[in-house]
Amino acid sequence: MSAPVIRPGEPGGLAGHLDGFVRAVREAGIPVGISQAVDAAEILTVVDLLDREQLRHGLAAVLLQRAAQRPAYDVLFDLWWPLTDRPATGGDADESAEGGEPGQPSDGPRGDDPEAAKRMREELLRLLLDGDEEELRRFARQAVDQLGRGQASPSGQSFFSYRVMRALSPDTLVSQLLAGLLAEGDRGGLNEQVARRTIRERLDKFKAAIEAEVRRRTAAEKGRDRVAKSAVRPLADQIDFLRAQSSDLAELRRAVTPLARRLAVRLSARRKMGRQGRLDFRKTVRASLGTGGVPVVTHHRPRKIHKPELVVLCDISGSVAGFSHFTLMLTQALREHFTGVRAFAFVDSTDEVTRFFRPGADVADAVTRIGQEAQVVSFDGHSDYGTAFETFADRWASAVGPKTSLLVLGDGRTNYRPAGVPVLAGLVQKARSAHWLNPEPRAQWGSGDSAADRYGEVVDMVECRNAAQLADFITTL
What we know:
Blueprint: E1 2-4, H1 13-27, H2 34-43, H3 52-63, H4 70-80, E2 83-85, H5 114-130, H6 133-147, H7 161-168, H8 174-181, H9 190-222, H10 224-231, H11 249-269, H12 281-288, E3 309-315, H13 321-334, E4 340-346, E5 350-352, H14 363-373, H15 385-395, E6 404-409, H16 421-430, E7 433-438, H17 452-455, E8 460-463, H18 467-476
Parallel strand pairs: 3-4, 3-6, 6-7, 7-8
Antiparallel strand pairs: 1-2, 4-5
Helix pairs in contact: 1-4, 2-3, 4-10, 5-6, 6-9, 8-9, 9-10, 11-13, 11-18, 13-14, 15-16
């Protein structure tokens, strides 16, 4: 029977174990309040603790608020509630089917034994054809024990998922799996597409089981807390813009879109002069006839609420390549909520790039077109904020006015060239409101070639390294 492990020697027993798990979830960036922690304790009294999946889903129901938090939660759950095979006759909870404690020598085959690896590949092929997830997880544990061992060190035994994948090469089994799942006349049609998708899902589950087992064994050697810090992937709102990968763009887009809507509402609210418009003298006089000429009730013309205008200045130099994806993504999302959005990109010169953000345009495609078609480089392709600001002020002076919100996005690193602070100050004075979002930590402002500290004297500069900080900035507007 499969059951989650709870070590009797841990402080507080089951309650202490749950408290450690809740703390780890909170440290991973998932907000967990006291009431949710109490609900998690209540879950332990109503679910079958021997049913690991029931426990997983029960705790997730009270600890998570968004689906995007589930991958990080699952990694932590597997570390705090690892899968083990408890023998019917009792014994240590960490003993499993492959025998022995994690890290102890095994009498089974090793990764450098070609015949053993061949036999295990044949077994893996059979399990993938059967599709039994429980048996596949058991096989993954055996494979890590026998094929994933690295060289032992004084700190303990190490296990590596790449050693298992290299020995078994599961991706090379696709043709054999297709042959086993399809009949002779099913090739090339819808049945083959379904079979290929099924194979991919089973291979992904096997790889996930291998990684989970490696994490479990590493946690047994080095401690859960240490493994959790490196194993848990940051949530979408905590991904550092400067280090965002192409695979993170979809998650960032989902996080940025609602924030853009909130930002537009905040900037619009700052423009409101009051709920009522100008006095409607004629209606007020007419109404006063019923009260002897005394204007007891005044009437006002309905005030027209206009969407605010926005000008965005984006640094798209190589030093902020990841951040530029975010800034252009934010620019595209903001277009839906403003009367006019004009976007300008710069490196050592400035050009208007509004034309690349038509409705429905893909951000990645816009970035590519900007790099190919926009005139943002005039000299050497290194950031020159002073020249960029001067070019903008000379060519598009009318873009910023008393109805405009100015948003500058960049790290403020000038490569020791003139910063153009007076030019920026002039733009800020003309605008209704101005803000600068900087992707670098505040402690680095003013260090080296950074002029962020000087820019901060003339414009409201805010540290914005991830979507969570963007949300905080919007809240304080």
